[in-house]
Each structure stands twice: as C-alpha cells, then as structure tokens.
Specification:
The complex is a heterodimer.
Chain A (H helix, E strand, L loop, with lengths): L1 H24 L14 E4 L5 H10 L7 E10 L4 E9 L7 E9 L4 E3 L8 H12 L2 E3 L27 E2 L2 E2 L3
Parallel strand pairs in A: 1-4, 5-6
Antiparallel strand pairs in A: 2-3, 3-4, 7-8
Chain B lengths: L17 H10 L11 H10 L21 E5 L4 H13 L5 E5 H6 L22 E3 L6 H17 L6 H11 L3 H13 L1
Parallel strand pairs in B: 1-2, 2-3
The chains are: A alpha/beta, B mainly alpha.
C-alpha cells in the first residue's frame, strides 16, 4: 500500500526529530510513541518544557515553527490533567510531532509556552478555562469562554454544573 | 380580515373602532431588533432578504432596541448572553413582543442535557409570546411565527392585559392537525 508507506515515512521523520530532542534533554523527555495518526512524546520534567519548546522552534534541524493546536486532557484515573501540543514545521522541514505535558489534577500548573508560540496564549487560556490547570508565567491567565465568575471546570470528567448563575437556573 | 380589505367607498369615510385602527397600525409596522445569536440568525437574515421579503409585512430590523417592537431571539442563548438579553429587553419600549425562534431558545435544544453554558429556554429570563419550533426553523416557519405575533396584536384592546390577549388568541386559533389532514386528503384524492 502506497498510502501506508507515505504515513510511516512521516513517522520516521518525526522519530528523527525526536532523536535530536532526546539527545539534548535526555531524561526530561519520555520514550517516543510511533503513533501513526500523530507520533508523540511526553515531557517528564515540567520545568524543562519551555526550554524544550524553544529548542524545538529554533534548532535548525527541528524548526517547529507552527503550533497547530493545544488541547487539554483529563486523566482522571492518574489524578492528572494535561495538554497535548500538535507541532509542525510549516514550509520548512514539513515534519510534525505531538508533545504531552501533565500536571497534578487539582492546583497543578504547567509552564506557559505563550512566549514561544503566540498561538499558545489563547489555547492555554482555554485549557485553563475547561480543565483548571494554571500556566505559570502566562501573560494573561484568565478564563476565555466561560464567564469570569463561573464555578468549576466544565470538561473535567467529574464536573457537575452549578445550580444557578446570577439567579438564573442552569440545569434543565 | 385586514382593514383595507373592507373596501372603502362612500367618500373615503370609514367607521371603525379605535382598537382596530391602533392594532392595524401596530401590526403593520412590526419592527424587530436586528440581533442573532447562532444558526437561526442565518435563517432570520434569509427571511429578511429579498426571497422571502419580510418588508411586505412592514417588518424590517432596527439597529437599536429603543426603536424595536419585537425581539426575535434567534439562536442559542448562553449564560453569558442571558444577562445581555435581559438588558436589551429592558431597553425596548412597551408594548414589546418576544418571539423565541428555534429549539435552543425554546428549551435549550441539543444542549439541554450536557450544554453547561446554555440557558435552557429564554422564557426563564424574559416573557415569550410566540415560540417557533425547528432547528433551525425554515423562513416559512418564522413568517408563520411573525404572523402569529400579528394575530396577537389584533386580539389586543385598550384596557385588557397581554395575558387576556394571549388567551383570546388561543381560543381563536384553529387546530393545525385538522388543516394538515384536510390538505393531505385533498392531495391524495
């Protein structure tokens, strides 16, 4: 199958990019997961995340110049919440990789990468709005979609909607 | 029957009640507030545009609540928007009418259970006169709803309350099932 070969070639490119990151940061990053849809690795040392991000953007062999998406995830069984960043090298090396970062489920915080990719600014605010993890050193850390005085974080798996908001009944 | 359908002869003299003239004037220039909240707004805009041409009923959107008689709540009302909707409603001069367009503003629509951010029916915050079902309703449905508002205005009299007018409207309205069935029988015959 020709199409299958094309996909695995792109995963090889991602693996090559990962090898460079692993070389530089060693134990701070996890093993590579050759997921066909989106190959990824996890950042194990939270404090190294901005440095890794900057390295990924600026290294001439990586050039991840484009953050396609930053999503939040609730790992309820692990007592953690996290983010998944889909990164691409757009118009340069044309490879892609996803980076996962996790923190504690209640009161956890992840270093912000809004200074590395400006896209991350609003995406991190959305992740905070929906999952409640803070992004340290974020330039504007407040809710983005829900009202400022909304209670709880709606996309957490154990979320229960509040009874009323400013005197208006919320549940059906 | 409309006032002009009566056929005015006798040297342009017309005898009618004050209620009748007032109601005719009001229902023939029903100005809705031009604001839309979601996909229903697209249907509302289509209804305003030339194909369906609401202006033949004297209905055309105004940019200010202070110039509007009718609020068409066209779309999903979020909890954040709910307070703004109340404020806009309060800015409208009386007598004012509210038409709730589409499932979202009727009862929360597809967001009724898991939509934490959606107000489950705009009638929780402001009084609604006419509900138009649909997701989104076609322009024909919206026109049907608007004509219902006109009918409601026709029921009004000096000295009776809105609730009484609505009651009169409900008494006068025909069961649509009867019309649908007679149409069906006519089509199959």
């Amino acid at each position: 199958m020709e199409e299958g070969q094309v996909i695995s070639q792109s995963v090889q490119q991602s693996a090559a990019a990962y090898a460079i990151i692993k070389d530089k940061f060693g134990e701070a990053v996890s093993a590579f997961d050759a997921n066909e849809t989106m190959p990824f690795f996890e950042v194990l040392d939270l404090s190294a995340w901005p440095e890794i991000a900057l390295f990924m953007r600026d290294n001439p062999k990586l050039q991840f110049n484009y953050m396609a998406c930053l999503s939040g995830v609730d790992y309820q069984s692990e007592e953690k919440v996290g983010i998944v960043c889909n990164l691409e090298s757009l118009g340069k090396l044309n490879h892609r990789i996803a980076v996962k970062v996790k923190c504690a489920r209640t009161g956890g915080s992840i270093p912000s990468v809004a200074g590395v990719w400006h896209t991350a600014n609003w995406h991190e605010r959305e992740a905070y709005d929906m999952y409640g993890m803070l992004f340290s050193a974020h330039p504007d850390m407040r809710r983005i979609l829900c009202p400022d005085d909304w209670e709880g974080y709606p996309l957490l798996k154990d979320y229960k909607v509040q009874e009323s908001y400013h005197g208006i009944k919320v549940p059906y | 029957m409309g006032l002009l359908d009566a056929g005015i002869k006798n040297h342009n003299v017309l005898v009618t009640s004050v209620d009748n003239v007032l109601n005719w004037a009001r229902l023939s220039s029903l100005w809705p507030m031009g604001f839309g909240l979601a996909c229903c707004a697209i249907e509302m805009m289509a209804t305003n545009a030339s194909n369906y041409d609401l202006e033949r009923f004297g209905i055309f959107p105004r940019s200010s609540p202070r110039q509007s008689d009718l609020m068409i709540v066209a779309g999903t009302v979020t909890m954040k928007m709910a307070e703004r909707v109340i404020r806009l409603y309060e800015q409208m001069p009386e007598p004012r009418y509210v038409l709730s367009m589409g499932s979202c503003s009727n009862c929360g629509g597809p967001y009724w259970e898991h939509g934490y951010h959606v107000l489950k029916g705009v009638d929780r915050i402001i009084p609604v006169d006419v509900y138009v079902p649909g997701c989104p309703p076609r322009p024909e449905s919206l026109i049907g709803g608007l004509m219902k508002v006109q009918e409601l205005i026709r029921m009004e009299q000096i000295g009776i309350s809105r609730a009484d007018a609505l009651k009169k409207l409900a008494e006068k309205s025909v069961d649509p099932q009867f019309v649908i069935e007679s149409e069906r029988n006519a089509a199959s015959a």
